[in-house]
Every structure is written in structure tokens, then in C-alpha cells.
From TrEMBL:
InterPro entries in alphabetical order: DUF3499
Protein name: DUF3499 family protein
Top-level taxon of the source organism: Bacteria
Native source species: Cryobacterium melibiosiphilum
Length: 73
């Protein structure tokens, strides 16, 4: 598998999760690293995945494989 860095500026950590925006439903889905890149998805490292927040009016759904909302420290 190709190395995919976190998409946050200045972050060199490897991506472990993919954040996808569903604009129709105002839903952001944080799941395991996607196999294919989509224009509406962003790869994130573990730290940035954990820090992810969504705009007001949006819902964030975390995949169970990422530990839900439990801190991973
Ligand atoms: Zn990062």
C-alpha cells in the first residue's frame, strides 16, 4: 500500500482514517482509511481523526473501528 500522509497542513503522520463529507445529508463520516480517493474525502492521522469536529448543523459519525468517542491516549 502506498504511504498516505495526513491531509492536514504541516502534519507528516501517516493517515489511518478517512473523513468523508456527505453534503446532501450534512453528515461527516470518519471511517477506516478509504481504498480510493474521493474529492470529498480527507485522509487523517490518528491524532487529527480524534480532533475532528464538524461545522454547526452537521453530524459526525465515527466508525466503531476507530474507538468511537473514547480517547485513545
Ligand atoms: Zn495529522
Amino acid at each position: 500500500m502506498d504511504f498516505r500522509p495526513c491531509s492536514r497542513v504541516a502534519c507528516q503522520a501517516p493517515a489511518v482514517a478517512t473523513l468523508t463529507f456527505d453534503y446532501a445529508d450534512a453528515l461527516a463520516v470518519l471511517g477506516p482509511l478509504a481504498v480510493t480517493k474521493s474529492p470529498h474525502s480527507f485522509d487523517l492521522c490518528a491524532r487529527h481523526a480524534q480532533l475532528t469536529t464538524v461545522p454547526a448543523g452537521w453530524s459526525l459519525m465515527r466508525h466503531a473501528a476507530l474507538g468511537g468517542d473514547q480517547p485513545q491516549l
